[in-house]
Amino acid sequence: MTTAASITGVKVEFLEFPPVVTSPATAKSYFLGGAGVRGLHIDGEFVKFTGLGVYLEDKAVLSLAANWKDKTPAQLLESLDFYRDIVKGPFEKFIRGTKVRKLEGPEYVRKVSENCIAHMKAQGTYGDAEEKAIQEFREAYKDQTFPPGATVFYRQSPNGTLGLSFSKDETIPEHEYAVFNNKPLSEAVLETMIGEIPVSPALKESLATRLYEFMKNDNFTIGN
């Protein structure tokens, strides 16, 4: 049996992603599926901006194992369908994005929302409701500033809601700052991180490697 004691954490730059977290807003515990850095190539240099960690409900392992248990980490990494099953799976995802360098809220959300819009348009899911949700999403960030170590948390529910929280460190707030009831937007946030055009290939690789190990265990639990 894989338990919380045997799930390892991941270090990304100076950031520690613990093996299990519990959100006071939901009272649920989530295990670390994977973590990696997000950055951009600027003037020939890879500039690191954010450490990303994707946490999952423990039932995610059984759900994913149904189709992916017999695949190797390399096969998982190469399969877009595997990551789409994470994004669309019938389990909660809890995403932590902690800043490596300072970012202003409007600057950060502009890029995130542009990526989400591009994905939704490509999938044919961008309509009036999504346009309104994006506007509300951007509004939530307008007065935010993220120094190094500050964190954005996303809670992606299978029913389509997206919970948003802000923290000056890695502490999960007791209450969510905003909740968006729009499934295409909720899924797009994670899709842009680990999907066809990922902002963090390192996160994708970490998910493939770690979930491969977890799926080999038929009695996976984090004990909550």
From TrEMBL:
Q: Which domain of life is it from?
A: Eukaryota
Q: Name one GO biological process term.
A: flavonoid biosynthetic process
InterPro entries recorded: CFI (IPR044164), Chalcone_isomerase (IPR016087), Chalcone_isomerase_3-sand (IPR016088), Chalcone_isomerase_bundle_sf (IPR016089), Chalcone_isomerase_sf (IPR036298)
Please name the pathway: Secondary metabolite biosynthesis; flavonoid biosynthesis
Q: Where is the Chalcone isomerase domain?
A: 12-213
Molecular function terms, GO-annotated: chalcone isomerase activity
Family annotation (Pfam families): Chalcone
Q: Does the keyword Isomerase apply?
A: yes
Question: Per the record, what are the reactions this protein catalyses?
Answer: a chalcone = a flavanone
For this UniProt record, the keywords arranged alphabetically read as follows: Flavonoid biosynthesis, Isomerase
| Gene3D superfamilies in the record | 1.10.890.20, 3.50.70.10
Q: Which family does it belong to?
A: Belongs to the chalcone isomerase family.
Q: What does this protein do?
A: Catalyzes the intramolecular cyclization of bicyclic chalcones into tricyclic (S)-flavanones. Responsible for the isomerization of 4,2',4',6'-tetrahydroxychalcone (also termed chalcone) into naringenin.
Query: What protein name applies here?
Result: Chalcone-flavonone isomerase family protein
Q: Which gene encodes it?
A: LOC101501059
